[in-house]
Specification:
five-stranded mixed barrel, alpha/beta, homodimer, 25% strand, four-stranded mixed beta sheet
Chain lengths: 352, 352
């Protein structure tokens, strides 16, 4: 049984415009100002759980060069290119069938590429423990985060805490998945002990997910089943380009997780954030004494508080008397928006 | 008697950073978004008062190319280059001696290059009237603006309104020049009828100003008198580079206007602003219904009021929920500052 890591790196990060642009979305940017992009941090944090020759990255065709450049240790033919965006179910199906042809006994952890995890030691412990569990069972394990606030931007996983698994007493059966709640619901959720944030981190054997897709998403399974002759051959990309667009646009949560049997949750706590909002980026970034998070070499703040400033390296930014704003500039774009209204940013980008 | 126009274009416009930079100060920028720079507008507004071959521009050596490019109709040898900044007295002395050698009977109007005048018809009428007056008298005429608010950023000219000049009943003797006042003083000034803003527009015959400089600024006069053999020769620039720096750093107001006899004021009203502040730029610019003044091709404002936004053409700027701010970006600099605190901008630039 060998461990494989699948990194999903096809997002477009529109909420972080203009820091994140369609040409270079947030996973390919050093958004924390630490010298490594989120994609690089994602691979880094797995340490020796999975050697580079068993790492796979699924991304859009147009980002393949960026991935290869940022992760030179990953084999070129492990960078799988989606010709179009079809959400997570076709993404995971493609890479699973691809891995299965090469290594039918693979044990896989799937990770988004644009999240942040602060406690790597605890993260590795949890991942190893979950991999050991799936190695011995036909189960799908989701990593559920202990919620710390009534977050409306995340989905929630409800676990059945009445009885832990015999093989791993940290792991529980899933009772239900709950979509992103409104604030009232979220406040109710976090008062309970059995609700966890859905981190998008999944662990399963390749045979388990392939079987689950065959049952719960046969229209997707049939496509990737039919392409088996081409995986690992020079024709693979051409065939994918032809047939991948036929997949329905659907998430793995909706198509499999919420419907399959043998779904488990591993409640854990390793300082995870999906960095899905400027608010969470602010929270994860180093801040000055006035609660400003600055990414950029030449940012000068005067009487400025509670701001997030993101500027390209060469640019000199001088700000006087601003409170609670996002200021982000890149290439030929500049955004100034109150932190409390960041949900509008997506409209600004899409409306352009 | 021939009319000559002298445009002073050596300012560095530091209050308008980063729209105005030391490499391209505000007089060389289309700050109003009308398709012409302030320098070009300055020449434009004189119409046929003075043909291009009698226009002179005094500027810093480093801006000579920009001037030549923006005013191609002005003869190349009429663009006088100061090797260093010495305020307005040496500037006017240099160009006056230079003109005098070529045209001892010249009648001159001196104009700053970074102001704005809205009513060109009235402006031309006043200038013609003043030039007719100085053509016949050994006088220096200042154009004084009827004040509309207690402005503390301007100097004031106090006229003796008891008796208009016999030759021109719109022109009065000057009683006194007053430096930029504090608010209390400015409020007192504008309640009176005899106080006018000093526009920096002067009219005089070349012989009049040369004689005045000989009497009131002999240390400057001696330098430019000694260079007479070189004006209009290939050695001119070399000699200016050698001796111009010897001039004291002093304004024409302080060295001559406040001390000479035969100083007159022509109270007038042609929509003048020195555009010395972002506030005055805001006032002079076209504004949207929410009182925003935008210069830039791709500026999108949402729930934004009372702002001045200045962006380079290519840049897309999206602003949400900002009130009363200056946002200016250019090259590798971005400034965000409340309009009420624009006096701090100079510090930001100089402190860099």
């Amino acid at each position: 049984m060998s461990n494989h890591l699948v990194i999903m790196a096809g997002g477009i990060g529109s909420r972080f415009w203009p820091m994140s642009t369609p040409e270079r979305p947030k996973q390919f940017i050093d958004v924390l100002g630490c010298g490594r992009t989120l994609l690089q941090l994602t691979l880094d944090r797995f340490g020796d759980i999975c050697p580079p020759e068993r790492v796979w990255v699924v991304t859009s065709a147009k980002y393949a060069d960026i991935v290869a450049q940022q992760l030179p240790q990953v084999p070129a033919d492990h960078i799988l290119q989606e010709p179009c965006r079809r959400n997570t179910a076709p993404c995971i199906a493609y890479v699973s069938w691809r891995i299965k042809k090469q290594e039918p006994k693979a044990n896989i952890i799937v990770a988004p590429s644009d999240h942040v995890i602060m406690n790597t030691t605890e993260f590795q412990r949890v991942v190893r423990s979950a991999l050991a569990f799936t190695a011995e069972t036909d189960s799908i394990v989701t990593l559920g985060m202990h919620p710390t606030r009534p977050e409306t931007g995340y989905g929630y996983i409800q676990g059945d805490l009445s009885e832990p698994c015999a093989r791993n007493r940290e792991i529980f059966r899933v009772d239900a998945f709950h979509e992103k709640p409104d604030l009232t619901k979220a406040e109710r959720y976090i008062k309970r002990k059995d609700f966890f944030w859905n981190s998008g981190l999944f662990v399963f054997r390749v045979s388990t997910i392939v079987n689950a897709l065959r049952i719960y998403a046969p229209e997707i399974a049939n496509i990737f089943e039919s392409l088996i002759p081409y995986y690992g051959t020079p024709e693979e990309q051409e065939q994918i380009n032809l047939h991948f667009p036929e997949c329905p646009n659907i998430s793995i949560d909706y198509s499999v997780m919420e419907r399959a049997e043998e779904i488990y949750v591993f409640p854990s706590d390793f300082g995870w954030s999906d960095l899905g909002t400027w608010g969470s980026l602010h929270e994860q970034s180093q801040r000055d004494q006035y609660d400003n998070a600055c990414i950029g070499e030449h940012i000068e703040l005067h009487e400025t508080r509670n701001c997030i400033i993101h500027a390209t390296e060469e640019r000199r930014v001088v700000i006087q008397g601003l409170d609670g704003f996002i200021v982000a500039e890149k290439d030929d774009a500049l955004l100034i928006c109150p932190r409390s209204q960041e949900q509008l940013i997506r409209q600004f980008v899409e409306g352009k």
